Amino acid sequence: MRITTLRRYPVKSMLGEQVAEARVDASGLAFDRVLAVVDRTTDIVATAKHPRLWRDLLKYSARIDDGGVRITTPSGRALDAADPDTDRVLSEALGRPVRVCSERPDGATVERPAPEDVLEHGVDAVVEAATLEIGQGTPGTTFVDYAPVHLITSATLDEVGVENVRYRPNVVLETPPGTAPFVENDWIGRELEVRGADGARTTLRVSLPTPRCSVPTLEHGTLPRATHAVRTLMRSNRVDVPGFGVLPCAGCYAEVGTGGVLRVGDEVALR
After folding, report:
1. How many structural domains does the chain have?
2. Which of 45, 59, 163, 171 could form a disulfide with 74 if both were Cys (CB 3.0 to 4.6 A apart)?
3. Where residue 121 sits, what CATH number does that domain have?
């Protein structure tokens, strides 16, 4: 296998940026999910997992600029995430009082309606939403959903027929011809060794299949709705995820064994 795409998402639930290389350590990719928008009223982390409230976050993008985070609004306006006025601009646009947070507090939570309910009733419907603690499998204070690194294979993406950005992975792996879709299910507990051109070795320990919410079905920037991004998984890849239940999945989560630099083109071997 080899790495074909590397992505980081400086602000949770906003579009991110594709990079040629990225340093990775126990907390994940450098600058990935280092910020989040937090609802001032509830202190809940805003995420498009709750599309009725927060799907418009997917119309924004964020990138690293001179060491800071630059947010671009749907109209093209550039915002410095560290500027106190950014909270006001986002609050007015999103229709709720929010603040940009740079450190995940202990017990930080998000709200996540079941994707089945969102698909049945629509993105504007009031449906029951579970409250989930994030970052449980990750040291540090970033705003990842669970584990430090999220991977998905070309075999799985080809089977579903959607753009990789919908699943918001850090790493896309090109698999050999004939590889079965959802092969990531079989990697749990195994190690991926990334071989750099310079001889360096980075290792990732696969921990869980990645459960899917309604986010992949939503508009992403200029990309339209794509309900099959999750409906296909509901039909073809429901997995018993330890601690979470039987859920539609695509891709996998991984912990970092040996840190280093990941680069597009690096070879990857399963151990």
Report:
1. 1
2. 59
3. 2.40.33.20
